[in-house]
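Question (not urgent): is this output format expected?
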Amino acid sequence: MKITIIFFATLYSFTLLGAPGVSLPAYKTHYYGDELASKFFPSDPQIRNLFSDFANLDVLRITTTPPEGRNMGMIDGDLLHQQGIQILINRKKIQKGTLIISNTGHDIPLAAQLLKNTFFSTQVVFHLPKELNDPGTFERLTNQAQDWAQEIKEYQNNYLITGPDIIFIGLEGHRREYNGDFLYKIDIETLPTREELISLGISKVIYIHERHPDATEEIVKQAVPADIRPYLDNLNLPVSYLGADCRREQGCGWKPLCLTDDPSCGWKEEFGY
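Got this back:
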């Protein structure tokens, strides 16, 4: 009986705080080409201008048909990253006045989960050039875009232009191959300066990598790729190095009920933080 009471008290406390759960995307879109890319534009004109040289959605623009869709096993990694970033939010690791630099293969679903936390005013920007059109990465990115495009578009359209609390930029971690070679490198000259960030109320930076949410900052920092490291080292703002990957180590307290493509297994929304 004590265990049951504790469980419901914990679940109710998250409801009171307004923390959204992790679940399958509410929409499955059927866009492609420029129409698909348009769903990912930031709605704030000053953010669009500030990141005009960095923002790149070319790998979405070159799609000519909607992707066929993913099985449950493929989407599992996205959901477990969404769980990871929600844990960071619930732990107060992510606060207003933050630039989040995400360097994972799950930046799109991470951004979607962050935007669901509507007590933040958030804008998101992605760098997804056409060099990412190799078969495996292209399939993943276009399916992630289909899954989360409508939620990202709607939450950004609800944004009140009073200056963002949080700016999220997605670097796409798989621009660097597993052997360490780069398909391309981030041009850090296209990223905002310290002064530009401060003018928007940004006073700190969080770097997110594919590491467990309980990983030490030193472990996460060791994984920073060479192309983005000079930007973080020389920005002269406080930087935290955090993981958001609940696939790793012991997991994060739960896993999706379905780890395969078995259509009978379904999905159940849970908290379990």
